[in-house]
Structures are given as structure tokens and as C-alpha cells.
Write a structure and sequence with these properties.
alpha/beta, three-stranded parallel sheet, 10 strands, 15% strand, globular
Length: 264
């Protein structure tokens, strides 16, 4: 894709529209190879599950930060595992301190341990506090267009609706709600959760989403590195198809060389 079609989030430009996570891999080598193969420039990591950030002893050993040099990747600290606005805000503030003033964060406040569905009332509270505190907030949300609008009004720099349950691999289950969010948003909209394979990523992009974030779809594949490559191409293909504009849907084909009105 050309530079003119780059993804812009909080004033930063990115060539890749695929964002990836760092968890669930067999080991650091597999994570490193998969992330590189994905072509992703934004990589999310759970602050509460990254001991190398706060534990000097853990930092001495090879760790996640060793495969994510900040001159190559934009780190996106997330609040995975937080179930209250208070915990999420505290986690983001800790991330900013540990990462030398880093303000770009992914907010997620969960409401249910089984489904990992977001608690939207707590998410709205946390988003407001973080924006007021100078954070650039990319926010995991339900597929509710009204909630998405309120998060944008608060000042979130990207809206990240789930397209299916986290980690389910069920694909894009709620495309009409996601399209409604896309069509009314003035900030990037990135699908977060639900993607299981490359066609799901392409569908999300063909719907007009600005990007896709995934972790399980790559890490839980039989061949994660190969799947990472597939996802890289799927996002590019879906974006190109969206920009190209698909042919109209018809109930039946029409002849490309009609036989009517011929001069013989």
C-alpha cells in the first residue's frame, strides 16, 4: 500500500494495518518469528503480565522486551485483566512510568471472566479519566454504536469493537453493528476480537475497518508463523478490495455480450 493510505492513530502514521498481541505463544522464539512475519508495527502487551517491566531480576533474563525493540515497534500497553476503571487507570499510569512517559495505551475493562466481554460503564469512566490525564486511548468496546460514539466524544483516538467473543475464532459475527460504527466514526475503527482465520481479517477490512488487532488467531494456529504471514496478506487484500469497491450484488448474472439489438 502507498504512504498516502497509511493508518494514522494519534498523529502517528503506520504502513501496516495489522496489530498483534504477544501472548499465548509456545516460547519467545515463536513469538518473535510470528510478530516479524505479520509485518505489524504496533504490538500490544499486557502490563500486568510483563514482569520484565517492573522486576529487575526478570529483566536480566531474556524476556518479551528483548524481541520488541522500541526503534522497530510501537508498543501498545494494555489493561488486560482489569475489571474496574480504578485498576485500569492505575495500570496505564504504571505503564507510562515504566515506559518513560509512553502515553499511547489500549484500554480494556472486562465485565465477565468467561466471555471477557467489556464492562461499558466502567470503560467509559476509565476512558474519561485517562483522556483527562493526557493519555492517547485506543479502547476495546462492545459493538454498540452509541457506546462507540460516546467514547469518541470523550476523546479516544481509536475505537476497537469486538466482532465476536475474544479468543473464539468465530469470525465477524456482528458485521452490521460494526459497519454502523465505521460509518459514523471520525477516528480509526479497528476490529478487536473474533478473527479466526485470514478470510475473517479480509472481511473486516472489506467492511471499511481501518485495521485489525489479533492474538489468538495467530498464536493458536497449528503453524503460527505461517498464519501470521497469511494475516498480513489478508489485511492488505481486504483493504485494497475496500478501496477498489466491489461489483454490485445481483440475483443472477447478466450476459457480458448481450444478444439483443444486434444489426443482423
Amino acid at each position: 500500500m502507498s504512504e498516502s493510505d497509511s493508518l494514522t492513530i494519534a498523529g502517528r502514521k503506520f504502513e501496516s494495518r495489522l496489530l498483534v498481541g504477544t501472548g499465548k505463544y509456545a516460547d519467545l522464539d515463536q513469538a518473535d518469528a510470528a510478530i516479524q512475519s505479520s509485518g505489524a508495527e504496533i504490538v500490544t502487551l499486557a502490563i500486568r503480565r510483563t514482569p520484565a517491566l517492573s522486576d529487575p531480576e526478570a529483566a536480566k533474563k531474556r524476556n518479551l522486551l528483548d524481541i520488541l525493540p522500541q526503534d522497530k515497534y510501537t508498543l501498545l500497553p494494555n489493561t488486560a485483566g482489569c475489571y474496574t476503571a480504578k485498576d485500569a487507570v492505575r495500570t496505564c499510569r504504571m505503564a507510562r512510568e515504566l515506559l518513560d512517559g509512553h502515553n499511547l495505551v489500549k484500554l480494556e475493562v472486562l465485565g465477565d471472566e468467561k466471555t471477557l466481554y467489556p464492562d461499558m460503564s466502567e470503560t467509559l469512566v476509565a476512558a474519561q479519566q485517562l483522556v483527562d490525564d493526557g493519555f492517547e486511548v485506543m479502547v476495546y468496546t462492545s459493538d454498540d454504536p452509541i457506546a462507540a460514539r460516546r467514547l469518541e466524544d470523550i476523546g479516544c483516538v481509536a475505537i476497537m469493537p469486538l466482532a465476536g467473543p475474544i479468543g473464539s475464532g468465530l469470525g465477524i459475527q456482528n458485521r452490521y453493528n460494526v459497519i454502523e460504527i465505521v460509518e459514523n466514526a471520525n477516528v480509526p475503527v479497528l476490529v478487536d476480537a473474533g478473527v479466526g482465520t485470514a478470510s475473517d481479517a479480509s472481511i473486516a477490512m472489506e467492511m471499511g475497518c481501518d485495521g485489525v488487532l489479533m492474538n489468538s488467531a495467530i498464536a493458536h494456529a497449528n503453524k503460527p508463523i505461517l498464519m501470521a504471514q497469511a494475516m498480513r496478506h489478508a489485511v492488505i487484500a481486504g483493504r485494497m478490495a475496500f478501496l477498489a469497491g466491489r461489483m454490485p450484488r445481483r440475483r443472477y448474472a447478466s450476459a457480458s455480450s448481450p444478444m439483443s439489438d444486434l444489426p443482423f
